[in-house]
Each structure stands twice: as structure tokens, then as C-alpha cells.
Design brief:
single chain, 209 residues, alpha/beta, Rossmann fold, seven-stranded mixed beta sheet, two-stranded antiparallel ribbon, 29% strand, binds S-adenosylmethionine
Length: 209
């Protein structure tokens, strides 16, 4: 069952995606370079089950299909975002699994080998929501699975897309995820928004113990 916060979150994101083009969104990037850099390790097999959490209209599924990955799932709370991505991918959209769900209140039907989140976890300012998110990672990731999470860094803004955000260093993100996830790498990103502003991000990679 959805609580009123979850309904408000869904409505917020549905409204954003139905009133802006992909390229107008402050987080738009034409190519998910850092995500690929961190995800494409030798341990990630072409048939690995890869979950893009809060994937929105990201071009990550396109890039993964281009590289021969065959088991890609995009999950987002906003159906409108998934529809934009499906339309962009055209016939190739049938090669991706699409799930409209709130990651803090979701039951997976399978175990995943990789979990990618660009600019979603930092919106979870409520401790219970963060706990539910990490519990989902613990329950639905296979041992040895890769986790890549990109958030606003400690130099980033306190609000984004009209919502408060929690900013992270690699250390504070690792502390939030807990002992079940071993840190392996961090990259910093100075993201330039379509309106020319610079936003500081950190992307960290972990391995599910
Ligand atoms: C800033 S956007 C980033 C989108 C995408 N990852 C990218 O890099 O382009 C945040 C995304 O998270 C989704 N989202 C927010 N809260 C969510 C939740 N609780 N469960 C699933 N998706 C969520 C939003 O709909 C939105 O698509």
C-alpha cells in the first residue's frame, strides 16, 4: 500500500516528466560515461541482471544494449519517464524490462547482479526510506553484485528539482549502506546542467558481500 508521501513523490516526478523535455532536465546527460566506467568491470557478464534504480529517461539502457547486455531492467516511480525512454528506444525497448515502482516499497521477482542509481538515493531524506532502500539492496542483490550510486557530493546543492537532498561523500555513503557493501572506487563529477550551472556529484562503487 502507498502512504501519502509516496503518492506525493510519484505525483512530483510524473509532473516533471510530463512538463519538460528530456534535454531540459537539470540532470540530463547525453552519455552516461561515469556510470559505464564504474559498471563495466570484467566481473559484469553480458547476461548479468542489471537494475537501473530511478532510471528516469537516462540513456544508460541504450548504452548497455549497445554493448551487448541482454538483461537490463529500468525501475522508476514515474510511468511517464519510462514511456519517454521506451519511445526513444523504439523497437529495442522490448529488450529492456520496465518496472514502475517506488524502490522503498518494492518486491523484486529475481536477484540482480548490478544496481545502478544516478541521482535517486540523495532524495531519500527520511531515514525510514533510506533503510527500506538499503534493505532492498540487501535482499535483491546476489553476493558479489556491483553497486554504483551517484549522488550530489558534499559540495552539491541542498535542494534539487524542488526537493531537499542529502549530500554524500564516499565515506558517508559507505556508512549509510553498512557492512554488507564493500567500497571499491569513487569518481567525482562536475555536471553541467542544460542551463549552464555546475553541480558536484560523487559516484561510488561497492560490491555486495
Ligand atoms: C534526478 S532523476 C535521475 C534520473 C536518472 N537516474 C538519470 O540519471 O537521468 C531522479 C529519478 O528518480 C526517480 N525516483 C524518485 N524517487 C523514487 C523512488 N522512491 N523510487 C523509484 N524512483 C524514484 C524519479 O522519478 C526520477 O526519474
Amino acid at each position: 500500500m502507498q502512504n501519502s508521501n509516496a503518492v506525493a513523490t510519484r505525483e512530483h516526478w510524473e509532473k516533471i516528466y510530463s512538463s519538460h523535455s528530456e534535454e531540459e532536465l537539470s540532470w540530463f546527460e547525453a552519455a552516461p560515461s561515469i556510470s559505464l566506467d564504474l559498471l563495466l568491470t570484467p566481473s559484469l557478464k553480458k547476461d548479468a541482471a542489471i537494475l537501473d534504480v530511478g532510471g528516469g529517461t537516462s540513456r544508460l539502457p541504450d548504452a548497455l544494449l549497445d554493448r551487448g547486455f541482454t538483461n537490463v531492467t529500468v525501475l522508476d516511480i514515474a510511468q511517464s519517464a519510462l514511456e519517454i525512454s521506451k519511445a526513444r528506444l523504439g523497437e529495442r525497448s522490448s529488450q529492456v524490462k520496465w518496472i514502475c515502482a517506488d524502490i522503498t516499497n518494492w518486491e523484486a521477482a529475481t536477484l540482480y547482479n548490478a544496481w545502478h542509481d544516478r541521482a535517486v538515493f540523495h532524495f531519500l531524506v527520511d531515514e525510514n526510506a533510506r533503510r527500506a532502500y538499503v534493505e532492498a539492496m540487501e535482499r535483491f542483490l546476489a553476493p558479489g553484485a556491483l553497486v554504483v550510486i551517484g549522488t550530489h557530493s558534499t559540495l552539491g546543492p541542498e535542494r534539487c528539482s524542488g526537493l531537499p537532498v542529502q549530500r554524500y561523500s564516499a565515506q558517508s555513503l559507505a556508512a549509510e549502506l553498512g557492512d554488507g557493501f564493500r567500497w571499491t572506487a569513487t569518481r567525482k563529477l562536475e555536471h553541467i546542467t542544460p542551463s549552464g550551472e555546475m553541480r558536484h556529484f560523487q559516484f561510488s562503487r561497492f560490491v555486495r558481500e
